[in-house]
Write a structure and sequence with these properties.
With 95 residues, this protein is α+β, with helices and mostly antiparallel strands. The protein is built from two helices and six strands. It has a three-stranded antiparallel sheet, covered by helices on one side.
Length: 95
């Protein structure tokens, strides 16, 4: 199944707004965790989410946008489909 990495930046940048966004995205299947090639889970930075889904990228985008618009009138949203074992990162905290 495809993996999608999502970035949402709110124009109302407050902890309360990001907490609300996080809770609403987690409730519909997104996660704040990413797993390394060796199976270790890491916490994604604020505003970043991951979902593994058989849905297409437009459906994922629409779901994120629908939620984000309940929190902010002008959210900036980026949805990217990640290829298998195609992620690299540094500085993320272990879960």
């Amino acid at each position: 199944m495809p993996t999608f990495i999502v970035r949402v930046q709110l124009t109302k940048e407050s902890t309360a707004h990001y907490t609300l966004l996080r809770d609403r995205l987690l409730a519909i299947g997104f996660t704040k965790r990413i797993k390394s090639k060796d199976g270790i889970e890491y916490r994604l930075p604020n505003g970043n989410y991951l979902i593994i889904s058989d849905k297409d990228i437009d459906t994922i985008f629409n779901a994120v946008q629908k939620v984000a618009l309940t929190v902010d009138k002008s959210p900036m949203i980026l949805v990217t489909e990640a290829k298998e074992k195609g992620n690299s990162w540094s500085g993320l905290q272990r879960c």
